[in-house]
Amino acid sequence: MAMFVLIIGIIIFFGVHLIPLTSVKVNLVERMGEKKYQGVFSIFSLIGLIVMIYGFSLVDDCNPMMADCDTNNIHFWEPLEYSREISFILMPISIILLFAFLVESNIKRILRHPWLFAIILWSFCHLISNGDLRSVLLFASFGVYSIIDIVFSKKEVQSSDSLPVTKDVIVIVAGLILYSILLYFHQYVSGEQIVEKNNLFFFLP
Q1: Are 179 and 91 in contact (CB under 8 A)?
Q2: Cβ neighbours of 21 (radius 10 Å)
Q3: C-alpha count within 13 angstroms, C-beta hemisphere, residue 123
């Protein structure tokens, strides 16, 4: 039942987000109007996200090989070798790209969809570290959707004018700061503590 809730949340959330990539959006906007469409889109996106997170939290992540474990959360693989080190390299880049989406910079100018590349890196890092079914469903869904979005989204005309390098520096510094904060408080975000808080260099693998 818990896994079913997770799957329903994934279907709702990504089903709604795939609409803008098709002609269905144009038809809906013509019938509903832009504002009403955006409102309905936001409501269903929020519902899907809540159901998805709730379903993920319901699934027991114990190892089904254990005698006292009663779960349908199949484990496909154990954390890959050096997955921790790889994540410590790629996740800062992911957060920097996420920040680049919010701030005008040369990074955003060169990469049309920095936040989608950020999600791909984020999902990859979590997949190599988590081989259970609930994690594969969740993180693979985000990664696959991001790839589809990049491939099928309309190309936007990008300005060829370079921006001051200081904007890129701001994005990188802010991204690293946010990464350090998320890393330090990861336990409160996902329930998994991955660094020693009494270690001054907790941000290093």
Answers
A1: yes
A2: 15
A3: 19
DSSP category for residue 202: T
Question: Which structure tokens are listed for 106?
Answer: 């040369």
Residue 146: Cβ within 10 Å count:
21
Contact 8, 51 (CB under 8 A): yes
Amino acid 131 reads G
- List Cα–Cα distances, 132 to 11, 14, 53, 56, 87, in angstroms: 19, 21, 16, 11, 17
In order, the DSSP letters of 16-28 are HHHGGGSTHHHHH
Q: What is the pLDDT of residues 73-104, one digit of tens each?
A: 788 888 888 888 888 899 999 999 998 988 88
Report pTM: 0.81
